[in-house]
Amino acid sequence: MEEILQDIHLEHHHGEPIFRIGTINGQEYIDFHVFGSFSVLDSTEKVLFPSIKSDMKWRVKIKESKAGSEKFRLILYETFEAKRIENKLKIAQKFDPEAKIEVLGGNIFLDEIKINSNVKYVVISGEYETEIDARKDFKKFKPEFNPTVIKDTVREPKGILEFFDAEYENAGETKNYFKIVPDDVQTKTRLYNVRTYDNILQKEHFDDRVYNGSLEFRLDNQGKLMVISEIPLESYLKRVVYSEIGKDLPIEFSKSLAIVCRSEVLSRVKHKHPGDPFDMCDWGHCLRYYGNDFEDPNIDRAVEETRGQVIFTNGNICDAYFNLICGGHTEDASGVWEIDESPQFHGKYDWKDQPKEFKNLHKEDVVRKWILSRPDAWCNLKGGDVPQSLEKYKKYFRWEVNYSRQELEKLIYKKTGEDIGVLFDIIPLRRGRSGRLKELELIGSLKNYKIRGELYIRETLAQDYLESSCFIIEKELDEIGTPISFTLVGAGQGHGVGMCKAGAAIMASHGHNWKEILQHYFEDCNISAVYKAQK
């Protein structure tokens, strides 16, 4: 495979990298207020209004627009290993002879200094008009692959945006997009009554959002308004740390989370949204970045005191995974994704030591006893001394869901397209180090069907997603032995790889510092700064 690696030079401000975060789309208009002086720049970076201060709300709306066009493709497999991708391509071409390898990332430079190399290889298949069409083809590649959808913009949207204050003292229009740039990056901008839609509840929500830094208003591919937050990394991380778990938590925990998130951002440059005009999105696909207005001196201090620090492995910035609650044992990265294992991502028991009776959680009798016993673990949020921000997460350490047999049969058909008939049993086939299922088999009256992959298992057996794939199965049978209902009793929330956020917070509350926390979850991690503290 011939490699042409690109050099990627990060935008920066005085040596601190700047990232673009996709936050809002699908709006007809947006009202905003900047709580400080700001400038307005058009799409050519020409200053339309220099350093103005306004006490009024402003509005941006679409004067005219023409939607762009996009195509969708499937990522069948991704890895950092060139040898591994060649083998996977051969398998993929049995399903799609046109499948090919693409290279993401490259050599990352900050202020002319190389700080990372994050070359990732992906197997790509197909070209579809809509995301729905792409998802319909998932079945063709299963169970060998668990595809995900990637979007490419074929034609950019075009149009004219109008912006003006409440009294029309300041007004203007510009093609395609414009940017508001506060004089001080800490200046807040409030966006009012932003519309979102909850697909699960089938309900609209309207709420305000608050951001620091610059905001870019532009047309999305459907010809509606979208907003991109353009912000220096350290300011971004303060909002990420709050969005990921809340405030009023020990400062040593916030330091550890800041380092993990900083590592994740810098390790994933040009990996996550190659078809979009931004680097990261604002939900769990990337990092959570909610537009809540909050104050937390501990978070501010934690980010500032760890400025520029990241985790390194094998000479490059580590893609440092984390999860909400591991359930008492973290998972090997290779137990969730097909990647080469490294010491930083060995799953381990989330406590001071591991009881001998729970050393083999890949065995059915051991994992059953472990799940039902609710053992000591850092993330076992029991008792009354749990920080308020963690109270709502107690329910995830151990959980259960109940289905009638017919409900589960309908779910399986909806998620897989497979009619297995009467569901007789769910058989675990392979578990990872933490007890998380890597493969299971559905036993049906018409056919048996295997499901591989932690995320696909969680998706198939739930309306949305199961909390984790670490669960045991209990059945209620009728008088002839046919299942009436299934109960899934589980542990943890999320994939379980890397740092357990709840466990790390409790470790910090017990006096452990950020270095001890990271050493516990990542082992042998090397931490150093890729840019220096501000003078």
Overall pLDDT, averaged?
93
- What percentage of residues falls in helices of 4 or more residues? 10-25%
What overall form do the CA principal axes indicate?
globular
Low-confidence stretches: none
Strand content: 35-45%
- Count of all domains: 3
Number of helices: 12
Number of E strands: 32
> What class do helices, strands and sheet pairing give?
alpha+beta
End-to-end separation in angstroms reads 46 Å
* Biggest beta sheet summary: 8 strands, mixed
Radius of gyration: 24 Å
Describe this structure in words.
The chain is an alpha+beta fold. It has three domains: 1-20 and 224-313 and 503-512 and 524-535, no CATH class; 69-155, Sporulation related repeat (Alpha-Beta Plaits, 2-Layer Sandwich); 321-497, no CATH class. Helices cover 21% and strands 38% of the residues. It is built from twelve helices and 32 strands. Strands 2, 3, 5, 6, 16, 19, 20 and 21 form an eight-stranded mixed sheet that branches. A six-stranded antiparallel sheet has the order 15-14-7-4-17-18, with no helix packed on it. A hairpin with a 4-residue loop joins strand 17 (188-198) and strand 18.
